Amino acid sequence: MKKQTFLQEIRKHGADRFPFNIYPCTIPRDFFTVPLHWHASMELIFVKKGTGIIQSGLTSNIANAGDIFLFVPGTLHALKRFEDHVMEYENIIFDLELLGGSSDLCAERYLLPLQSGRLPLPDCLHPDSPCYQTASSCLKEAEEANRLKLPGYELAIKGALLRFLSILIAQYSQTAAAVSDTRDTRRLKLVLQLITDHFSENLSVEAAAAVCQCIAHGRFRLCQMADAAVNADADQHHQNSRQKHSAVKLALPLFSCHFSPSLLCHMFSPRCK
Fold first, then answer.
1. Taking the model in full, what pTM does it have?
2. pLDDT by residue (tens digit) across 219-273?
3. Which terminal Cβ of the chain has fewer Cβ within 10 Å, N or C?
4. DSSP label at 18?
5. Which positions ≥6 away from 72 have C-beta within 8 Å?
6. How many C-beta neighbours within 10 Å does residue 130 have?
């Protein structure tokens, strides 16, 4: 794919031959929000202290200390501050290719289905969730190995991540809900990319509905999708450097307020007929 969408994060995490990294972060000390985005890597958010709001797909959740949020590749997700609380967390990002090659049996049965969204896992683990203690201990082991970087630490990280996934697959693969990158979130990516590509042109709501194949339902369905993605305060969105992209002036209000079809048309009116 030659052109990347502006919501897709294409930054490389870790080394080329060891695509893994951990980022300790704090909201709001480091930034007020992590705006809506997605990437081809697997991402885990391990909340260490405090409380915040974490969006996965079209669902927003209150995140508390100990919670572990899972974003499989392609999942739209975002983070923001909750009221006046501070949230400290570790952002664990890795490519699934790190854990097995294409000819590997584990890749065929588990990693490739996980990459493509065919193997469901839970969006979040809470401290009282089944298998939480064993799963969280795997992440703590990976964190410690990454911190010390002793000889062989890469093997320790890979082993910990494989055990983490094996625990979740054994516990949840038969019962977990569908993955968060749903048909609606994929449609929203298309709409936002349309706005990005044609920001200086006149656009219609019908054109946006058509590009995401909402033709049968038109404006009403497009509004339903955007309304389901309500997650963040508009002022906080625009404070973040990611929002300096010109298309955000038009696109992000879709994710910033509750609205009716008439309000959506009003929002589009400066650029759309």
1. 0.69
2. 555 555 555 554 433 333 334 333 333 333 334 434 333 333 343 444 444 434 3
3. N
4. B
5. 42, 114, 115, 117, 121, 179, 180, 181
6. 12
* CA 110 to chain CA mean position, Å: 20
Cα separation, 51 vs 88, whole angstroms: 8
- Could you read off the pLDDT of 72-96 as tens digits, one per residue? 998 999 999 999 999 999 999 999 9
Contact partners, residue 8, CB within 8 Å, separation at least 6: 37, 38, 39, 40
> Averaged over 8-33, what is the pLDDT?
83
Nearest CA to 164 out of 195, 143, 181 is that of 143
- CA–CA separation, 131 vs 76, rounded Å? 26
- In this prediction, residue 242 carries a pLDDT of 39
CA distance 70 to 139: 12
Closest alpha carbon to 45 in 30, 14, 23, 60: 23
* pLDDT for 117: 85
